[in-house]
Model the fold of this input.
Amino acid sequence: MRELLTVSASPHTRGKIDISLAMKMVIIALLPSFIFSVYLFGLRALYIILISIIACIVCEAVMQRMLGKKITITDGSAVLTGLLLAFNLPPGVPLWLPVVGSAFAIIFAKQLFGGLGYNFINPALAGRAFLMASWPSAMTKEWFAPAGGTLSGIDGITSATPLTLLKNPGNYGTPELIIERLNDIPAIKNLFFGEIGGCIGETSALLLLIGGLFLIIIGIVDYRIVLGYLGSFVLLAFVLPTKGNLLFHLFSGGLFLGVFFMATDWVTSPVTKKGRWIFGIGCGVLTIIIRVWGGYPEGVSYSILLMNVFTPIIDRFTKEKVFGDRKVKKEVMK
Done:
């Protein structure tokens, strides 16, 4: 009887797409952004991505061996974690930094909690948050100007990314003029196509959008999280007194990378349909709040991590009613 039972972490859902295939599809969806990042930032971007992926694979295998588990590095989850972590790093970081981030992501955010299916936060984002807290200078200043473009997206300013420039325009010139130029069509075009500086894999909103829509079409990504995230973000970006216009906020930073490829993580997002709407809306609200009033110019990573923590609570209060289930009224004893 023991051989007939399978014990695994929730969610206990089954579909035609297994874990390995799902991971491969997400990696394929990220390939255009991967190729474009190497074009923009050169071989250093390639080195960081490869180092991050290899470090994740090695840490996964070593931890599984130490814990007496089956080694599952061929399922693609470690590769995807390394790729996403590298996509969230500036192209000029020291080459040891992705190794440390990968080790934290796999060991502390994944394997020590039981491995794939048991982790309560996104490992790649946990690795990025750890690096941001430990080496903030390297994570916020090691930017490269992209090939064929400028770091800021506008001519004449070469020491700040678009969101940093919007956050503190007075540090780089006349605030009113800088904000006006950031909101102009040429700057928005640079943001959309990716001819700007930023983290390795977040620059091209167009390529991330194409990859994300591909995942929605084939059923890997749930549209509810995407629409909830983007809908709440767009609404608040339109209503709140932000310096940047709606298109600037939509195409800048790591919004599309987070919306399509990290907030939609099966393990760390809610199982229920209502819960996914709530999760997405919460991510969008937190992202724009951090951008407008937070100390950091970008809030995608922390918003998703915070909502990851609330996922079990969201699932608990949005669970579907069991068919045929009814409440039994207790008779009052007289």
Q: What stands out?
A: The chain has a mean pLDDT of 91. Residues 154 and 187 are 6 Å apart (CA to CA). The chain is about 60% helix and 0% strand. Residues 222-317 form one domain.
